[in-house]
Amino acid sequence: MSVTYHDPCRLGRLGEPWVHWEGKKIPGDRFVFDPPKVYRRGTKGVYGPPRDVLTSIPGVKLTEMDRIKEYSWCCGAGGGVNESNPGFAKWTAQERIEEAGSTGAEAIVTACPWCEKTFSEAIKESGSSLKVYDIVELVEKAI
Fold it and tell me: pTM here?
């Protein structure tokens, strides 16, 4: 089976370890800190392990989308978006499904139940033949 992996926000960008910073803001109109403050931008999030799991499953071929890792596109469900802006949530999920479909993959895999739910709804509404799996489901099938 050919799959593509969607990086969920909480595991990826927001899964980056927190680093305690001690220092002070230098007065002025810009955010200048002494010593310089290291910002969390998602580059050290959890991206490799899910891909390692997928590539270790016999018969599964991982094909990447264009927007991955810290640049991954939103699924539309995180942070209450689905409740506060349902139109946007539907649109962004549909965008991600189209991107996943353009890879030629048969399924989109994620590690977030909210992403899975949103993608399932978008696929059902669009009539796409793409399947949605949680990464644990594929591991279970392989066992």
Answer: 0.86
